[in-house]
Write a structure and sequence with these properties.
CATH superfamily of the largest domain: Zn peptidases
Number of domains: 2
CATH class of the largest domain: Alpha Beta
Oligomer: single chain
CATH architecture of the largest domain: 3-Layer(aba) Sandwich
Bound molecules: zinc ion
Strand content: 25-35%
Helix content: 25-40%
Largest sheet: 6 strands, mixed
CATH topology of the largest domain: Aminopeptidase
Strand order of the largest sheet: 1-2-6-3-7-20
Length: 399
């Protein structure tokens, strides 16, 4: 064990420059959701260069590398799409320079989350070189469309590619901590149906905007009363948009719609959250529904799902959480204290829907996700590549 441990750490260090250069190469390619063609091709050739046993791109555009062919199935997941830059005036450097300087790699996606991808590519190289994991099937997935619809890519991988791992390591940024859960979320729309009348005689109509406003104030109250979980925190709801319709600006509005961003804590479900909203609009001419996502991938394939992203958390004493703790201990020589993401990840589908165990470990601090001046420490990339290889080493000893 110690021997492998030393070897993993020294190899991750040896490939430091290479890992940073791979990340820089990925960052230089702009890759917003649904537009990942170029970055996917780059990742595919990167895995081929590093000697993976097989690399393919699935019909949705996910890039899947494989090492080993054994019974135990492990997957590393990192999405290769990013959000846009936002106003360039908030950036003090070019978001797509991919510059490596002063111990950092700079640019959009360096933290969220191409850094995790570059790190697992190096981990794959370490596995090949040491022979670790050859008794397992280890998949390395560069997934697509995550920023628009978290988990959709994994619905495809599980249902259509037929890849069902025993455990998935999400490489979203965790600031080098072990993460084991997150709140879920869902998007709900409520439509209000009023009656239009001439604006000069509003008493003849029924104003849908007033209905929506009364409901909106109830939503504000509902937010205060939502349950909390000691680990994941409180459920929440907020209104992100209100839209209305009227035959004219001189008429009573006969249509309104509010859009709810609902975050779900432990124990809250699609049904419980929808029931609350239905109760709140009882007696109104209104209808609540869960929204759906359906978009074209860069491959041209159209795919979608309901915008319900279930809450998930792993028991602290779970076999794979313990294996994660052990790998952490091997790399950092200290105990880990498992934490959680504030944002949402592909774990909502992998664990939330399909019940496949998920743990998270990734380079970079999540405060840089979707923010200007995004950058990741090269030291983090080195530690992450060591952790991923150490996780495989731990599992091969724990059979
Ligand atoms: Zn992300």
């Amino acid at each position: 064990m110690n021997e492998y441990n030393k070897l993993i750490i020294s190899l991750s260090e040896k490939y430091r420059e290479n890992t940073a250069a791979n990340l820089s190469r990925l960052v230089r390619i702009k890759s917003m959701s649904g537009k990942e063609a170029e970055v996917a091709a780059a990742l595919k050739s990167m895995m081929e260069e590093e000697g993976f046993d097989e690399v393919f791109t699935d019909p949705l555009g996910n890039v899947v590398g494989r090492i080993g062919n054994g019974k135990k199935k492990v997957a590393f997941d990192g999405h290769i799409d990013t959000v846009d830059t936002g106003s360039l005036s908030n950036w003090s450097f070019d978001p797509f320079s991919g510059e490596i300087k002063d111990g950092y790699v700079y640019g959009r996606g360096s933290v969220d989350q191409k850094g995790g991808v570059a790190s697992f590519v190096t981990a794959g190289r370490i596995l090949k070189e040491t022979g670790l994991g050859k008794d397992m099937t280890v998949h390395f997935v560069g997934s697509v469309m995550e920023e628009d619809c978290d988990g959709l890519c994994w619905k495809y991988i599980i249902e259509e590619d037929g890849i069902k791992p025993d455990v998935v390591v999400s490489t979203e940024p965790t600031n080098l901590n072990l993460y084991i859960g997150q709140r879920g979320r869902m998007e709900i729309a409520v439509e209000f149906f009023g009656l239009s009348a001439h604006g000069s005689a509003p008493e003849r109509g029924d104003n849908a905007i007033y209905m929506a406003s009364r409901a909106a104030l109830k939503v504000e109250k509902l937010n205060e009363s939502l349950p909390s979980d000691p680990f994941l925190g409180k459920g929440s709801v907020t209104i992100s948009e209100i839209v209305s319709g009227s035959p004219s600006l001189c008429a009573v509005a006969d249509y309104a719609r509010i859009h709810l961003d609902r975050r779900l804590t432990w124990g809250e479900t699609k049904k419980s959250a929808l029931d609350e909203i239905t109760a709140l609009i009882r007696g109104m001419k209104a209808k609540a529904c869960i929204l759906s996502y359906k978009e074209k991938a860069y491959t041209g394939l159209e795919y979608g799902m309901e915008k319900y992203y279930p809450t998930w958390k792993m028991p602290e004493e779970h076999f794979y959480v313990n294996a994660g703790k052990e790998a952490f201990n091997r790399v950092f020589k200290k105990e880990s204290r498992p934490g959680k993401w504030t944002f949402s990840t592909n774990g909502v589908v992998i664990n939330g829907v399909y019940g496949i165990p998920v743990i998270g470990f990734g380079p970079g601090n999540e405060i840089f996700a979707h923010a200007p001046d995004e950058k990741v420490p090269v030291d983090d990339l080195v530690s992450a590549s060591a952790f991923y290889a150490a996780f495989i080493a731990t599992l091969s000893e724990r059979k």
